[in-house]
Design goal:
With 125 residues, the chain is mostly helical. Helix content is 65%, strand content 5%. It has one domain. A hairpin with a 7-residue loop joins strand 1 and strand 2.
Length: 125
């Protein structure tokens, strides 16, 4: 049994360092890719919202959002949302890797969108 415990402890230690190294690389890729506030806002808001909704938050055109999504999916930092065929979601939260998220351009739109999501969820229950 002590051999099993030693192996588990060693694997936990390896995992801890692998996560640390991976997060450093992820942060670097995100910082290099998301080189403007609108890109950061689009990325952070990409979690199932439609491209027009994300565009309002970031203050960009919805075709720009769709272009970013395609590029980021190729790069591996975003993926197609499993519940929506034409929407994408971010793989990492900017906050979790230590990148500051700028204030949304359309803060009132963001609040309105969140309120709509809440009321839609209640209607579907």
């Amino acid at each position: 049994m002590s051999d099993d415990m030693e192996i588990k402890d060693l694997l936990k230690e390896i995992l801890k360092w692998a996560k640390f190294e991976g997060m450093q690389k992820i942060k670097q890729v995100l910082e290099n890719t998301l080189d403007s506030d609108p890109k950061k806002l689009v990325y952070e808001s990409s979690n199932g919202l439609s491209s027009p909704e994300v565009a309002k938050i970031a203050g960009v055109d919805d075709s720009t959002v769709r272009d970013y999504w395609k590029d980021w999916a190729i790069l591996g930092i975003a993926e197609i949302h499993p519940n929506f065929k034409k929407r994408y979601r971010r793989i990492f939260s900017l906050k979790e890797v230590g990148i500051e998220v700028p204030k949304p351009k359309g803060a009132s739109e963001l609040k309105e969108i969140k309120n709509q999501e809440t009321s839609e969820g209640e209607e579907n229950e």
